[in-house]
C-alpha cells in the first residue's frame, strides 16, 4: 500500500519542482516598453512642446537671435534697443524712450524669466545681462540659419556709374540724328534717376 502511494506521488510531480524564472537585472537591458532615452542620466529631459512654447512668440525668437549674433551675451538695455528697432522698423538711433521702455518692460517682466526657467538663456537680473543657456541647442535648430543680407549699395552705385559712363557718350553721338535726339533725354533721365535713388537708399541704410 505504501509503495503504491509513493509510486503515485512520483508520477504526479515528475521530479523536483523547477525554479521560477528570475527577472534579468542586467544594467544593459532595455526598458520594458522598448523605448530608449537619448538623454544622459544627468541631463534634463526636454519636450518639443517646451521648445515651441518659447519659439511661438516673435519677441522671444528675437531674443535668441540677437544674443547669438552678439557672441552669446548682451545687456538688457542693448537687447531692448535692438528688438525695439526691429519692431518699429527704424534704426536704433531713431528709437525714442517710450518705444525702448515698452520692449524693456516686456522682456524684464515676462519673456526673460520664462526663457531662463527653461534654460534657453541665462538671465542675471542683478547684472542685467543675458547669455545663451545650456538648453539653447534645443532651440537653435529651429531658428533661421542667418539674417537676410543687407543690400550691397556700393556695388549698385558702381554699376550705375559704369552704365552712365557707357550710355552718356553713346547718347551724345546719337543726338546728332533725329532718332537719337528723341531718346537722348529719356536715357539721360533714366540713368540720373537710378543713380539718385541708389544714392538715397545707401545713405538711409547707414543710419
From TrEMBL:
Superkingdom assignment: Archaea
Segments for region (Disordered): 1-45
InterPro entries in UniProt: DUF7344
Keyword Coiled coil: no
Record field: compositional bias (Polar residues): 1-10
Chain ranges passing through the membrane: 156-176, 182-205
Entry keyword annotation includes Transmembrane helix: yes
Residue intervals of the DUF7344 domain: 52-130
Biased composition (Basic and acidic residues): 27-45
Keyword vocabulary terms for this entry: Membrane, Transmembrane, Transmembrane helix
Protein's recorded name: DUF7344 domain-containing protein
Originating species: Halococcoides cellulosivorans
Amino acid at each position: 500500500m505504501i509503495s503504491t502511494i509513493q509510486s503515485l506521488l512520483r508520477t504526479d510531480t515528475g521530479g523536483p519542482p523547477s525554479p521560477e524564472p528570475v527577472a534579468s537585472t542586467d544594467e544593459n537591458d532595455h526598458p520594458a516598453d522598448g523605448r530608449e532615452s537619448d538623454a544622459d542620466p544627468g541631463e534634463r529631459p526636454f519636450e518639443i512642446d517646451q521648445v515651441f512654447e518659447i519659439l511661438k512668440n516673435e519677441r522671444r525668437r528675437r531674443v535668441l537671435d540677437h544674443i547669438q549674433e552678439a557672441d552669446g551675451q548682451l545687456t538688457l538695455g542693448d537687447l531692448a534697443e535692438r528688438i525695439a528697432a526691429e519692431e518699429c522698423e527704424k534704426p536704433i538711433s531713431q528709437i525714442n524712450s517710450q518705444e525702448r521702455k515698452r520692449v524693456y518692460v516686456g522682456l524684464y517682466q515676462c519673456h526673460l524669466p520664462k526663457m531662463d526657467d527653461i534654460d534657453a538663456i541665462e538671465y542675471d537680473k542683478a547684472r542685467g545681462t543675458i547669455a545663451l543657456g545650456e538648453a539653447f541647442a534645443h532651440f537653435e535648430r529651429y531658428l533661421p540659419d542667418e539674417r537676410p543680407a543687407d543690400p550691397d549699395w556700393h556695388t549698385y552705385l558702381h554699376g550705375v556709374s559704369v552704365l552712365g559712363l557707357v550710355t552718356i557718350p553713346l547718347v551724345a553721338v546719337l543726338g546728332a540724328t533725329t532718332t537719337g535726339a528723341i531718346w537722348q533725354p529719356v536715357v539721360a533721365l533714366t540713368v540720373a534717376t537710378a543713380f539718385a535713388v541708389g544714392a538715397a537708399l545707401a545713405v538711409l541704410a547707414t543710419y
